[in-house]
Amino acid sequence: MSKNNPHFSPTPFIRGVNIGAWLVLEKWITPSVFEGTDAVDQWTFDATPGARDKLTTHWSTFFDQTELRRIADTGINALRIPIGYWAYDNTGTPYLSGADAYLERAVHWARESHLKVWIDLHGAPGSQNGNNHSGRAGSMDWQEDDNLQKTIDALIKIATKYGTSAYGDVIIGIELINEPSSWGKNNFTKTKSWTIQAYRAVRAATQNTKLQLIMHDSFQPAANWSDVLSQLFGQRGKFAMDTHPYQLYTDADNALNQDEHVSKACAWSTSLFKPYHDARIPVYAGEWSANSNVCVNPDGSTLNGTSSSQICKVAGCQCVADTDPDNWSVHTKTQVRRYVDAQLQTFEKWSNGYFFWNWKGPGGWNFLNGVAQGWIPSPISSFAKVC
């Protein structure tokens, strides 16, 4: 359990990885699946000729029991598995069903390896954020028509199956929705009202009294969730929040050198996690990464930037974002490891757990490669204290 947040969760401390791009396609992680098509997301891919056979092959080969055992050997104790609503109702869409059978298979594998599973509704009707990882890029119609209710309907189907006592030893949580935008066509107030409605409806469909229902923070600070947290206070840890503290996607973050990235990760203790601690609400880092947009000089000093052709001024300088980890220098690996260790130290002390994104992927997004190459500790709990 977290040392500073020990009593708010019915589950043990979670050290996990995401099994992304498996049951919800993400082209940047698995470009080979999309070869020969103009598809950009699951919506367009599933409409292409031969999609059913390609999906079946991908589901059967991308993630298997051998890979799960490799993950378990690193000290990981849980998997966060994204899935789309269309696995439970694809009516009126080009989406192909069938993913739930593979989710069920993974749950049984996890049980055999003594891992826990968190089911993450990664794609919602209408798309909750307009990103390709929601299933449909460019659309953000989640709050239009009856899509909010359809999302709850899909969650109820998940909870009715996986929230039973039969799965109580392995399923620890269901995430109501992943990364709903709080801008554009999404109204944040409506998102919060939906959260309470969804929590109560899904809770009523579960038998497992310890099952957590988790909501992503919509990239809003805890203070902006205070009304929801107060209404769901007293659930004995059965409601939790998920935050994804990447330091990659804002101009402010991309202006930092690695020392500043490390300092910011250490400061999450008060800036990010303490408000949930004070509200007695469990909080998880449901996604995080080894990546920061920095460049590393041969002497080990770092610069802010993403491209060696634009930033690096001396021979041997490497930028994390555009250099394959197989070719990282000792100094680059050391700087990436410092950032990883800072995040792990903060998560272990101030959160209820975390899930690295992703177990497999390009560059610094590959957990198993990180362990093999030493920029992720193994076992995962053997991080250096840098904060």
Automatic annotation (TrEMBL):
It holds the Pfam family Cellulase. GO terms for biological process: cell wall organization; glucan catabolic process. It catalyses: Successive hydrolysis of beta-D-glucose units from the non-reducing ends of (1->3)-beta-D-glucans, releasing alpha-glucose. It comes from Tothia fuscella. GO terms for molecular function: glucan exo-1,3-beta-glucosidase activity. Its EC number is 3.2.1.58. Belongs to the glycosyl hydrolase 5 (cellulase A) family. Coiled coil: none annotated. GO terms for cellular component: cell surface; extracellular region. Keywords: Cell wall biogenesis/degradation, Glycosidase, Hydrolase, Secreted, Signal. It comes from the Eukaryota. It is found in: Secreted. This is glucan 1,3-beta-glucosidase. SUPFAM superfamilies: (Trans)glycosidases. Residues 54-293 form the Glycoside hydrolase family domain.
